[in-house]
Specification:
mainly beta; seven-stranded mixed beta sheet
Length: 127
């Protein structure tokens, strides 16, 4: 059974940057597509980005394109979400998710199922 753990959330000013990290225990991330979702209070969980197991496919929500970058490091068993030019609307709990299915636009839709989810890390964007 895989457990996912996110880290890196913090309070940052608008325009600032953060890097979120996701790692696993129980099983390595090697063969899994990894996705990042976020949920703000009172809002539906939103798909942010995903990366395929081979890192050859990356998808981004329109709201974060050109500001966020997803990556992974197989050797370190880590996945990352680099977030730049953060806006107040980017605030929320960010979740890492893993699934054996490929990354693609449909994998970021609301209500999509993933095999494993982390507990989340809080990102606040405020001056």
């Amino acid at each position: 059974q895989m457990q996912l753990v996110e880290s890196g959330g913090a309070l940052v000013q608008p325009g600032g940057s953060l890097r979120l990290s996701c790692t696993s225990s129980g099983e390595r991330l090697t063969y899994y597509a990894i996705a990042w979702f976020r949920q703000a209070p009172g809002k539906e969980r939103e798909g942010v980005s995903c990366i395929s197991a081979a890192a050859d496919v990356k998808e981004y929500a329109d709201t974060v394109k050109d500001r966020f970058t997803i990556s992974r490091d197989m050797a370190k068993n880590m996945a990352y979400l680099e977030m730049n030019n953060l806006k107040p609307d980017d605030a929320g709990v960010y979740y890492c998710a893993a699934d054996l299915l490929m990354c693609g636009p449909s994998r970021l839709r609301p209500g999509v199922q993933y095999d494993y989810w982390g507990q989340g890390t809080q990102v606040d964007v405020s001056s």
